[in-house]
Design goal:
- It comes from Massiliimalia timonensis.
- InterPro entries: GmhA/DiaA, SIS_dom, SIS_dom_sf, SIS_GmhA/DiaA_subfam.
- It holds the Pfam family SIS_2.
- This is SIS domain-containing protein.
- GO terms for molecular function: carbohydrate derivative binding.
- It is a single chain.
- This protein is α/β, with parallel strands linked by helices.
- The protein has one domain: Rossmann fold (3-Layer(aba) Sandwich), CATH 3.40.50.10490.
- The protein is 54% helix and 12% strand.
- It has eight helices and five strands, in the order ααβαβααβαβαβα.
- Strands 2-1-3-4-5 form a five-stranded parallel sheet, sandwiched between helices.
- Strand 4, helix 7 and strand 5 form a beta-alpha-beta unit.
- Helix 3 runs parallel beside helix 8.
- The longest helix is centred in the C-terminal third of the chain and has 24 residues.
- It is globular.
- The termini are far apart.
């Protein structure tokens, strides 16, 4: 049997180190904006590419079904990367850089917010949608890694993972999801997932 323990310890140690360095005040700000948006019965558009697309889809599931199952008002997450036919049609007919912005046009309303996920912070299709949303006056929560890229600058609230590893970045983006879901379970639903 091969011994991978050193590599396992190295990964776990780095992830714990980065986890402890996260800006908890920014998470608190994001929680408040998400709650305000839900209370106002506005939409939360979320999207990303690759692993970030999976994270976006997971967020929608956790909030629209998970938390909302127990609340009178419901979260209205809309994951823009979940409809494959729509993505392929836009990518084929217009261009992949427009797959998210095109979907926001004509839908985005005052009070809606955008949750944009990009490990590098520089995914062109994500930035195009964010720039469009900002031009409409909508607020942006950005989830990034590495140096944060342009998305860090464009976000009203940046949930930044300061590490040069896409794997740890994506791990901790899911921590943001489950942490915030857990907080809302406790505050909105009186369910404590930490017991």
């Amino acid at each position: 049997m091969k011994d991978y323990l050193d590599l396992i310890h190295s990964y776990v140690d780095k992830e714990v180190e980065v986890l402890k360095s996260l800006d908890l005040n920014k998470i608190n700000e994001a929680l408040n904006l998400l709650e305000e948006t839900m209370e106002a019965e506005k939409n939360i558009y979320i999207f990303g590419n690759g692993g970030s697309a999976a994270t976006a889809s997971h967020f929608q599931n956790d909030f629209n079904k998970g938390v909302s199952e127990y609340t009178e008002k419901k979260f209205r997450f809309m994951c823009l990367n979940d409809n494959v036919a729509t993505l392929m049609a836009i990518a084929n007919d217009i261009g992949y850089d427009e797959v998210f912005r095109f979907q926001l046009k004509g839908k985005l309303q005052e009070g809606d917010i955008v949750v944009a996920i990009s490990g590098s912070g520089n995914s062109k299709n994500v930035l195009n949608a964010v720039e469009y949303a900002r031009s409409c006056g909508n607020k942006i929560i950005g989830l990034t890694g590495y140096s944060g890229g342009k998305l860090l600058e464009l976000s009203d609230i940046s949930l930044h993972v300061p590490v040069n590893s896409m794997q740890i970045t994506e791990d901790l983006h899911m921590v943001f999801d489950h942490l915030m879901m857990s907080v809302f379970y406790k505050t909105m639903c009186q369910i404590d997932h930490l017991k």
